[in-house]
Amino acid sequence: MAFDGLFIHSLINNIKHTLIGSRLSKIYQPFDQDLILTFRKNRKNLQVLISVNAQYPRFYITEQTIVNPDKAPTFVMVLRKYLEGSVLQDIQQVGVDRIVNFYFSNRNELGDQIQLVLSIELMGRHSNVILYDKKSNRIIDLLKRINPEENRVRLLLPKAKYELPPLIPGINGFKITKDEFKSMTRTTTVQSFVQKVSGLDRDDRNELTGYLEDDFSYTSFKTFISQFDKKGAFILKSSDNKRKIFPYLPYHLDLTKESVKSDLNQALDEFYLYQSNRDWVKQRSSQVERVIKNEQKKLTKKITKLQTQLDLAENSEGYRIRGEILNANLKQVHSGMTKISLPNYYENNRPIEIKLDAALSPVRNAQKYFTRYKKLRNSIKHVKEQVKISRQTLEYFDSVQTAINNADPQDVDQIIDELTAQGYIKRQQKQKKVKKITEHNLNRFRLSSGKTVFVGKNNYQNDWLTFKKANKHDIWFHVKNMPGSHVILQDNQPSDRDIAETAEIAAYYSKAKDSAHVQVDYVEDKRVKKPNGAKPGFVIYTGQNSIEVTPKKDNIQHKKL
Residue 329: pLDDT above 80? Predict the structure, then answer.
């Protein structure tokens, strides 16, 4: 289900008492459409994530580690000016609509008490975060400033009067009385009544319809509505494996139960973890992906051109043959000729047509063919080396793209630093210093046997894991002949099951993660070497064994620490 009005009602009930009375200590905007508000209460920090992402606008308390950007946008500076140090007095939903108001109390520069409202409107592409003064009802600032030409319904600019967006009137299921229900349903159908109930998305609407078709009564209706006052959460999957989260267990929808959580907010944080990470990585790595795409395009063209040149060089015998035939028939060649047909004694004297330069003598024409032949033959070694280097560089960028696909937001800075060091990204004068790699940067897994597996998420981490972190007798894993993470199993006598489980992890953190049959090499870490001058992440190894596995996301995520 989506973040509809009834879901928001459940979430507010879940987090309200945790947040009310806390002091807002920090505000930052890690990405264009996301805000982090850090509240302090009972000597603990509580991070509230607010996202106005058009596909899944949302808010909840998060435990994710999100990097604070160096430079704060204008809206964040305004929020810090007015809200930092303020006390959260209340959290209220507007009816059962997708609008949530955070009420703050603070003091202005003169020391006077002021009441401020941070309004979160979770309405698809129209989602916004608006700060306004409760007394004057004037907007102080907002995350998305909208020109009057783009929205003529209401003015969304600083100093304008705050007005609610147009709301569709409907039935508030939490407030309707038994008499009102009877009056409304006396002459109407189940479908017509359900359409009038506010705060429902399609899934909730279908579920409520199922309840009322079984028993079109006030008791049945309140049974459905009362489920949104509970604290738990249910994660379910549709027939096409799409995951959905509900504050209740639906019985009338074609869904399969995946898991049950006792806390709705924690379930939300876990539910959106993967998708939000992908979005944040995509935003932060946009520059890197442009560089990768451009370099891959240039390298592909270069390899095609070099391959054509190599094919020409390897098939250059024709130039030598033409030179020899000309030398053997110099008396038949006259100055001013542009071509001549002579018997080819390499092919039973069949005629061969030879082009000539009219400005050159017969001998010079023959020498020209020999020179061309020698030049092409001498170029073969150089061109092959260039093809090899170009293909290795193309594989390197493939590995960087794979690293981005597996990265967390905080890993992108290391990838940018790597490409900067390689000269593919221009170094900034005030470039942020990348933190030293530690064990905490890596992905960590616990196998069924209890043994630990470490996974590098980019080329810098791969090198550090393989050559600094790993013991020489640990077992090193890597997908065969394909970009992927370096994976270390901390054990020198692994069982067959340990090897299979670790190989599955290595396959998942590679370009072949969606393949059914993936070959994974494994060998003692001491057999892995890095050639002099090799790019980050590139290694060679000998004496390896191989195993074929099929990576399954659920198996792997279950082992992640």
Answer: yes
Tell me, what DSSP letter sits at residue 468? I
Structure tokens at 192: 């017509």
Orientation angle between helical segments 362-406 and 286-314, nearest 10 degrees: 150
Q: How far is it, in rounded angstroms, from Cα 100 to Cα 96?
A: 10
Go through 152-177 and write b for each residue having 16 or more CB atoms within 10 A of its CB, e for each that does not: eeeebeeeeebeebeeeebbebbebe
Residue 65 tokens read as 């580690």
Q: What does the DSSP assignment read for 17-68?
A: HHHTT-EEEEEEEEETTEEEEEEEETTEEEEEEEE--SSS-EEEEE----PP
* pLDDT at res. 513: 86
What DSSP assignment string belongs to 246-274?
ESS--SSSS-EEEEEES-HHHHHHHHTHH
**Average pLDDT of the residues in 439-452:** 89
3-class DSSP state of 410? helix
CB 546, CB 480: distance < 8 Å: yes
What is the pLDDT averaged over residues 444-452? 92
CB atoms within 10 A of CB 130: 20
Q: Where are the alpha helices (DSSP H) in 170-257?
A: 178-185, 190-196, 202-214, 218-226
CA 25 to chain centre: 29
Instruction: Please give the pLDDT value at position 233.
Output: 92
Amino acid at 95: G
Domain boundaries, the chain: 5-142, 178-280, 287-403, 439-559
pLDDT tens, position by position, 206-219: 999 999 999 999 99
- The CA distance from 161 to 543, in Å, is 73
pTM of the model: 0.67
Question: What gap in Å lies between CA 73 and CA 28, rounded to an integer?
Answer: 9
Write down the H helix ranges in 84-216. 178-185, 190-196, 202-214
Please state whether 48 falls in left (phi above 0), alpha (psi between -120 and 50) or beta: beta
Q: Residues in the chain, how many?
A: 561
Alpha-carbon distance of 508 to 502, in angstroms, equals 10
Q: Which residues pair with 142 in a beta bridge?
A: 130
Architecture of domain 5-142: Roll (2.30)
Distance CA 270, CA 388 (A): 44
Contacts of 405 (CB under 8 A, 6+ apart): none
